[in-house]
Design a protein that fits this description.
This protein is an alpha+beta fold. It has 1 helix and 8 strands, in the order H-E-E-E-E-E-E-E-E. The strands form 2 sheets. Strands 2, 3, 6, 7 and 8 form a 5-stranded antiparallel beta sheet that branches. The radius of gyration is 26 Å and the shape is globular. The N and C termini lie far apart (58 Å). 11% of the residues are buried.
Length: 127
């Protein structure tokens, strides 16, 4: 009888541990978050630029996208006029967003320039 109960105990333990491990290692789906990316600028669309484009990828420049940014106006705490551009991007929580800005000129056919943090690009973790 001792052998039978030992075998039954071992079988029950294997069944329980198998069901626990299947549940314990099930990957949770990645949660999407929306992040606001802001480019502070001196450039007003009507005077200097045609557009500012957010050029971004995730986790080492994967899944690259270009998103037109919206120009905003306002005043800082010292009543100085400010111009900035912003865009919302949706990525998985904890992804690293790699990005730079393409500023398109509105002057005589000039192409514009890239703002890329002196060649280092910009990065932020999505929270």
């Amino acid at each position: 009888m001792k052998k039978v109960s030992s075998i039954m105990f071992l079988t029950v333990m294997l069944l329980v541990s198998g069901s626990l491990s299947a549940n314990a290692f099930a990957a949770a789906p990645a949660q999407k978050v929306t992040c606001k990316v802001v480019y502070n600028s001196w450039y007003e669309p009507s005077l200097y630029t045609e557009a500012v484009i957010l050029h971004y990828g995730v986790n080492g420049w994967n899944d690259i996208k270009d998103v037109p940014m919206t120009c905003k106006y306002g005043y800082d705490e010292n009543h100085n006029f400010k111009v900035w551009y912003e865009a919302d991007v949706e990525v998985n929580e904890n992804d690293t967003i790699d990005y730079c800005f393409h500023i398109l000129y509105n002057r005589g056919g000039a192409e514009g320039f890239w703002e890329n943090n002196d060649g280092n690009d910009f990065h932020m973790v999505a929270k």
